[in-house]
Prior knowledge:
Oligomer: single chain
Amino acid sequence: MSESDVIISTRSPRVIDKIIARHFEIRGYFWLIPEGQESFQAAVAMVGNDPVRRVFLIDQPGVISLRHLQAAEQIKVQAVIDQLVSWFYVPRL
């Protein structure tokens, strides 16, 4: 396994906040993927970030995508920033 294939996992709120803040700074895009349904992906832009409340705002996905995402038990939020893929799971939008 090369160094570029290494997956680093963190549960540190401080590190996660920094990653999300970086996405906000560059107005990054996220892919919202219902857990277990990797073929379904809704691309949305980050439009706001409130690290104190641990909330970030995204553009609203289309109506059909929104219904599909709201029905999911968990949603994978995935993005690429600075040539690194980052992802985490949320229980709801």
